Amino acid sequence: METDFLVIGSGVAGLTYALKMAKHFPEKQVVVITKTSADETNTKYAQGGIAGVWDDEKDSYDKHIEDTLIAGDGLCNEKIVEIVVKEGPERIKEIIEYGARFDKDESGEYSLGKEGGHSENRILHHKDVTGLEIERALLSELDKLPNINLIKHCFVIDIITQHHLGYLVTKSTTDITCYGVYVLNVNSNQVEKITSKITLLATGGNGQVYRTTTNPRIATGDGVAMVYRAKGRIENMEFIQFHPTALFEPGVSPSFLITEAVRGDGGILRNKNGEAFMEHYDHRKDLAPRDIVARAIDNEMKKNGTEHVYLDCTHMDQQKFIHHFPNIYEKCLSIGIDVSKQFIPVAPAAHYSCGGIKTDEMGRTSIKHLYACGECASTGLHGANRLASNSLLEAMVFGERCFLDSLELIETINKENNLPAELPDWKAKGTTEPKEMILITQTRKELEQIMSDYVGIVRTDVRLTRAMRRLDLLYEETEELYRATKVSPQLCELRNLITVGYLIVKGAEFRKESRGLHYNTDHLDKSDLLQNIVL
Ligand code: FAD
Ligand code: SIN
Questions:
Q1: What is the fold, at CATH topology level, of the domain defined by 438-486+488-510?
Q2: pLDDT given for residue 528 in this prediction
Q3: From the alpha carbon of 43, which atom of ligand 1 is closest?
Q4: Which ligand is the nearest neighbour of the Cα of 495?
Q5: CATH for 2-238+354-416, options being 3.50.50.60, 3.10.300.10, 3.30.70.330, 3.60.20.30
Q6: Collapsing DSSP states into helix, strand and coil, what is residue 150?
């Protein structure tokens, strides 16, 4: 297959870009690839909502910028923060035009929620299933455009660069160029080649590298691993955000989220003795930024020897609770918890990757003709810790920016007309059918365990060293298996997750300080040198 515009990922980032491109070029075909079904994305599970300055009287761009910078703990790129905050409301209006419905109050105005780290109510939401509504609206808009070819159940293995043409490509190569991708068609079990002039990676997060995560199965950091293998730049991978309040349900994966908006509406965290403990940790109490709340919970759990704390909603207006959080209400009831009478057991879970593929203000990566957008990208918005509900916003703002830049790039590519005539087919020669799935599943369990036990909310130098040694072994064994075996999504995901784990540990080892989401008890202070860690 050959195309001008190739999009990997059908979440908010990929679809925002694809829709704009298809509308701009009705005569061209835009190809969107997704590894499972169209809507199985992190986007679909977003609960709390999308942050944006909406109420000009009470709120302002300056306040949203300030809140984002405070959460980011010194590492946000201020220019990018300003871009996202100021362009965000326009992008939100666009998805409303696509048909996304956000809750309104009795007066017909949007009902704006509040979450940790926000100084004002500015979060638009659709009950507690905002992501589902956004994904629905985007996919229904896509249905109206015959020139978008959405290909499901296709797993992108690697991006194609000069390396595949036989040239030596290293980190110092300045003109690494993306010519397309190799993709495993899961139905036919064949690896196909897609040649593209411009490729956008919108592959989402990597929460699956941890044992407990709010991220669905698809979140295996594939885009980040592909770019790293292609010698592109990755940054700030050590900043993994743990959401403070995932429902504690042993053995259930992914973990069900109890949105921060519940605390925004008055929910109180309590320890096993029923004590509201957040006042001992931060003056903003239950609505402090996530890094602070997650660490406080972790500390309470360790102090009291418990596996969870509680979220108390018993004092809240129950009719309002059911109206705003019907999904959470039903989920809790389904496991025997009546939130009007019982506390909800909650524990932190890996939730969001603040770092990722390094991009500039137009979403360009360090690899030519390759953009990245959404959770897989590191734009500089989040710094050391993402402000709640800024992620959907970032994906939409950069979806537009990547689109605008692609319009110029495609003209240049067409003018220069120097793309390689023929790219090699995938080489499966010498590989055999996998004999034992246990070699993949067991390694994945080990990886999750190493990452959760040594590279979680609280880190130490010794834990990081141990993690790296163990990851080295998993890497060697898995690469050996990869060379000998026919590719499968399971094997590719394992390989990608090991790479992601390595990048998180490497970033954490380099960062000899505690900042934002990276907390190392051997380096509790902040360094004077503000820097991004680029790998
Ligand atoms: P995704 O929506 O994750 O889409 C990734 C796409 O890439 C998928 O289509 C997947 O199939 C595809 N893909 C990945 N790898 C491959 C491959 N190898 N081959 C082919 N396709 C591939 N953020 C907020 O701002 N507000 C919230 O309220 C909020 N709540 C959240 C609640 C939960 C439970 C979770 C998990 C996240 C939440 N977030 C929230 C974060 C936010 O949802 C995500 O960061 C955002 O949706 C990511 O969008 P994306 O388009 O980058 O990636
Ligand atoms: C939540 O609803 O608590 C998640 C919001 C987010 O991840 O931004």
A1: Methane Monooxygenase Hydroxylase; Chain G, domain 1 (1.20.58)
A2: 85
A3: 47
A4: 1
A5: 3.50.50.60
A6: strand
CB 396 within 8 A of CB 421: no
Closest ligand 2 atom, residue 386 Cα: 8
pLDDT < 50: residue spans in the chain: none
Ligand 1 and 520: CB distance under 6 A: no
pLDDT at position 317 is 95
- The predicted structure's pLDDT at residue 10: 98
Which residues make Cβ contacts (< 8 Å) with residue 74, sequence separation at least 6? 383, 384, 515, 516, 526, 530
Atom of ligand 1 nearest to the CA of 375: 52
d(CA 65, CA 53): 10
Per-residue pLDDT at 431:
83
Domain range summary for the chain, segments of one domain joined by +: 2-238+354-416, 250-349, 438-486+488-510
Proximal ligand: closest to the CA of 350: 1
* pLDDT (0 to 100) of residue 99: 97
Three-state secondary structure string covering 370-397: EEECHHHEECCCCCCCCCCCCHHHHHHH
CB-count burial class (<10 Å; 0-12, 13-18, 19+) for 21:
buried
Go through the chain and tell me how many residues it has: 535
pTM: 0.96
Looking at residue 433, what is its pLDDT?
83
In terms of DSSP bridges, do strands 377-378 and 356-358 run parallel, antiparallel, or are they unpaired? parallel
Coil/strand/helix, residue 442: helix
**What integer pLDDT is reported at residue 482 of this predicted model?**
94
- 427 Cβ neighbours under 8 A, 6+ residues apart: none
Residue 49 CA to ligand 2 center (angstroms) comes to 7
Q: Does domain 250-349 have CATH number 3.90.700.10?
A: yes
Q: Encoding tokens for residue 465?
A: 């060293």
Q: Report d(CA 223, CA 334) in Å as an integer.
A: 36
Q: Which residues line ligand 2 (CB under 6 A)?
A: 47-48, 259-261, 352, 388-389, 391
Instruction: State if residue 375 touches ligand 1 by the CB under 6 angstroms criterion.
Output: yes
**In 3D, which of 183, 179, 180 has the Cα closest to residue 155?**
183
The predicted pLDDT at position 434 comes to 80
